[in-house]
Amino acid sequence: TNRRMHDSAAALVDRVLPHCPYRQWVITFPRRVRYHLAADPKLASAALREVLRVVFAFQRRCARRAGARPSRASSNGAISFAQRFNSALELSLHFHILIPDGVFVRRPGDHPDVRPRFVELDPPTDADVRTLLDRIIGRVTALLRRHGRLGDDAPADELAPHLSLASRTPAGGG
Question: Measuring CA to CA, how many Å separate 120 from each of 7, 63, 107, 158, 173?
């Protein structure tokens, strides 16, 4: 499997990913949430979608503050890998997400075949990560409740001590 992982990574770098800086986000969940997500792939995909919506909206807000005008439909991108087990081979569904450290912006009047300009963003601060984590917890909690996976009596912040969001720049800076 190491060979396959290496080949997949090389193909992504050589043929898919644009040359720009990236940040790896690792999203884990508390045990009680992991089991629901692991048992229901559609729910796991929906949880990943909520995470990406929060991060992408944050990036677009930062870009607008920097004077760029990213569109909601085509300014962000990510590659996500779901891992179902941890190093002890315990069920531990979590996501590794590679996201460009910026947004892609088209200039008005550009032909659709013209590559968009990449606007690099500053790394998120610790306060930004805390804010993102709060939003992710709220959205994932709401998603689980809508699907009957958390009782109405469970406090929204119950996930806070357990849901972790880690952000780091990969070695080599992208």
Answer: 28, 8, 16, 35, 13
99 or 161, which is more confident: 99
> Residue range 60-81: average pLDDT?
92
By DSSP bridging, strand 117-120 and strand 22-28 are: unpaired
Other CB atoms closer than 10 Å to residue 20's CB: what's the count?
13
Which tokens belong to 94? Answer: 């979590």
How sure is the predictor about 109, in pLDDT bands with cuts at 50, 70 and 90?
confident
The DSSP letter of residue 22 is E
pTM of the full structure: 0.80
**Token code pair at residue 114:** 């013209």
